[in-house]
Amino acid sequence: MSHVTTHVLDAALGRPAEGIPVVLSGPDGEIARAVTNPDGRVPDLGPELLAVGDYRLEFETGLYFAASGTETFYPRVTVDFVIADAESHYHVPLLLSPFGYSTYRGS
């Protein structure tokens, strides 16, 4: 399993958000790219271990909403986070709607 995983839920529709491109970046630039699966998850985003430091997940949400003809205020969502423990798993879920989003550290 990847050190960092994510899951996107379309909160407006109450279902997983499939097909969202996601980029994981670190201190030295891009680490990995993936697309959310039918369950809205990216279980294989990057390596099994990452060094302690600052990281970023960027979700191309505009593409997701455009595919369904839905207007959105956020063409992309960027989540900056810190890996403080190189041994822990980091799960970063995104709850998404056309005009709002939230995120948290999951398990």
Largest sheet: 5 strands, mixed
On the 0 to 100 scale, the average pLDDT is 96
- Percent of residues in helices comes to under 10%
How many distinct helices?
1
**Pattern of helices and strands:** EEEEEEHEEE
The chain-level structural class is mainly beta
Q: What's the CATH H-level superfamily name?
A: Transthyretin/hydroxyisourate hydrolase domain
Number of domains: 1
Instruction: Provide the CATH topology.
Output: Immunoglobulin-like
Q: What is the name of the CATH architecture?
A: Sandwich
Strand content: over 45%
Net shape: elongated
Count of extended strands: 9
N- to C-terminal distance:
13 Å
CATH class: Mainly Beta
Q: What's the Cα radius of gyration?
A: 13 Å
Low-confidence stretches: none
Keywords: Hydrolase, Purine metabolism
Protein name: 5-hydroxyisourate hydrolase
EC number: 3.5.2.17
Domain Transthyretin/hydroxyisourate hydrolase: 4-106
Question: How do you describe this structure in short?
Answer:
With 107 residues, the chain is mostly beta strands. It has one helix spanning 61-67, and strands at 4-10, 15-16, 21-26, 29-35, 41-45, 53-59, 77-83, 90-97, 100-103. It is elongated, with a radius of gyration of 13 Å.
